[in-house]
Amino acid sequence: MRLLDAAGHCIAAAGFSKTTVEDIASHAGVSKGIVYHHFDGKDGLLEALITKLTTDWIEVSGLDVWIERTESLEDAIAGMLRGSLEYARTHPLVQALFQLDPIVARGLGSTESIKRITDEAHDRVVAAISSGIDRGELRGDLDAGLVADVVRMIDMALIDHLLTPEWIDVSDERFVDTCIEVLFRGIGGGRADAGCDEAGDER
Questions:
Q1: Which H or E run includes 9?
Q2: Global pTM?
Q3: How many whole angstroms separate alpha carbon 117 and alpha carbon 195?
Q4: What is the pLDDT of residues 39-58, one digit of tens each?
Q5: Cα–Cα distance between 2 and 67 in angstroms, integer?
Q6: CATH topology of domain 49-190
Q7: CA dihedral in degrees (17, 22, 25, 29; nearest 10)?
Q8: Burial status of residue 35 (CB atoms within 10 A of its CB: 0-12, 13-18, 19 or more)
């Protein structure tokens, strides 16, 4: 754990490419040999670090957490999106990892441990959305897997714009609220036909 904490501190401060195994060992107060004894160099440390970060991120902002805190699935999804964004906003390591070379990031994203963690979290979102559809809380004509993918896409897009704010200011809470409202207007039970019901024909 001390090595991972040291790696996280160094990468958050200097970025992955500029951080060396020597830097990490020095910050942890151990020899470079100890690092190589426990990990396959800097890449092995990075994989373990991202696995831990992903696990912590999901534990803090995963849908399961918000379902226990709220009374509706929509509130839980909104809480998950806001919680995920807040985690990214308050953890400097997230920004450093999002700025990884795309080739490195793709390779790490396909590792077994990280893929398992993210797939399990995604499956729980799909199950929750399926339950919401069955209860009539969400529209009955939706595909739960596709809705879960849309939610994940919105989550990643918000975080991406938070870390690279040149085009969209995600720090504006009104923008985040609007994204969530637009999502719920599309998936909420009965909402899609509200305009037709009121006017008697198409909007």
A1: helix 2-14
A2: 0.79
A3: 40
A4: 888 888 888 888 888 888 89
A5: 33
A6: Tetracycline Repressor; domain 2 (1.10.357)
A7: -130
A8: buried
